[in-house]
Amino acid sequence: IALCNVADCVHCRVSQPCRENRTEWLCSSSSRGEDLWVREGKILNPEKLFFDEKGSADVQLDCKGCILAPGFIDVQINGGFGVDFSLATDDFRSGIDLVGQKILSHGVTSFCPTLVTSPPSVYHQILPQIRIRNGGAHGAGILGAHLEGPFISKEKKGAHPEHCIRTFEENAFQDLLATYGSLDCIRIVTLAPEIKRSSEVIQELTKRGICVSLGHSVANLSQAEEAVQHGATFITHLFNAMLPFHHRDPGIVGLLTSDKIPAGRRVFYGMISDGIHTNPAALRIAHRAHPKGMVLVTDAIAGMGLAPGRHTLGQQVVEIDGLNTYIAGTKTLSGSVATMDTCVRHFLEATGCSIETALEAASLHPAQLLGIEDRKGTLNYDSDADFLMLDDSLHVQATYIAGEEVWRRDALGM
């Protein structure tokens, strides 16, 4: 019995955890699928159980024809449900807990709370309150913060407040440390690679295991390639807040097919697949050019999950008009109100890709980007038992973290 990764996503049945420390789950085969076994929060290779321990599953649960897939990982989410991660408040922790709990229903089992360009005082107040933690019934796991700015281009600031944008001073890395206050909980930093002294910063961040992403930038292709050669591995919301593709100098977009990427290195790129930020044709172009690099992100703001109206995005006021979000009084897009499961379904429809490919873009690829594919983003043996039950239209029916059911659609009848 084997269910290896998202590419083997099958129609199955799954179990409930048993008593004490012998947590075992069994996903009993239907005519179309295989079995998924879970014990003590990990996906289990049943051969050891069968042949060495002479054991069997304690509890079985029928998935009733659902698809099993790894939990989604959102590496760029600014907030949601009235909570703005870039707004310094005394109850910030309760806000991040609320978002973590709410996104379970959309299949997100791990996320990177994202802060947009802010004054140093905001970073100093908020970042100490972000704790890397495992997910569970309390909500999705926190993988570390994504700091989008303030070292970005004013020309491509998007919804970021211009008065907070910074360049690097003489001692660039120390300047970054002084701005953020601490790197303890930081997982991703988005910066513009054309800024003077950025190479030094990219190298120092990479040494510390922090992912560097290129975005909000007017960099040309050679500047982007140099940044990758120094350690950058990600592109923040491809096509948005960067120079448009040009056939003589494709800019950051050109990294998708560059022949100057170091051997053994893969460049990933975020895509806001909400039907607003990127035309379906552009989504198809990116996917066909570099399918193994696509990482779906929501770029969700505080207004996600709420009615249209006025909300915040850090220092800015934004307005929600249908599925569009704008800086108040302008037509400048300012994040998204799409949920991750919606992005997955839109990506599937827009590109005509396989279900496995669509699911990988929201699970396996972000895990690979962060270097955690040994435990997240797959259904491999010994990986964390963070997985979803989906119907054939990829609507989430139930969400599990470490083998525990943390959300279930009532209509599922289980």
Describe this structure in words.
With 414 residues, the chain is of the alpha/beta class. It folds into two domains: 99 residues, Roll (Urease, subunit C, domain 1); 299 residues, Alpha-Beta Barrel (TIM Barrel), CATH 3.20.20.140. 22% of the residues lie in helices and 21% in strands. It has ten helices and 22 strands. Strands 6, 9, 10, 11, 12, 13, 14, 15 and 16 form a nine-stranded parallel sheet that branches. Strand 9, helix 3 and strand 10 form a beta-alpha-beta unit. The radius of gyration is 21 Å and the shape is globular. 53% of the residues are buried.
Strand content: 15-25%
Looking at the structure, the CATH topology of the largest domain is: TIM Barrel
Distance between the termini: 24 Å
Q: What's the name of the CATH homologous superfamily of the largest domain? A: Metal-dependent hydrolases
Choose one word for the global shape: globular
Number of helices: 10
What's the layout of helices and strands?
Elements lengths: L10 E2 L12 E2 L10 E3 L2 E2 L2 H7 L13 E5 L1 E6 L1 E2 L2 E2 L7 H11 L5 E9 L3 H7 L14 E2 L2 E4 L23 H9 L5 E6 L6 H10 L3 E4 L6 H9 L4 E2 L32 E5 L7 H10 L4 E4 L12 E4 L2 E6 L2 E4 L12 H12 L3 H8 L1 H7 L16 E4 L5 E6 L2 E5 L6
Parallel strand pairs: 6-9, 9-10, 9-11, 11-12, 12-13, 13-14, 14-15, 15-16
Antiparallel strand pairs: 1-5, 2-3, 3-4, 5-20, 7-8, 17-18, 18-19, 20-21, 21-22
Helix pairs in contact: 8-9
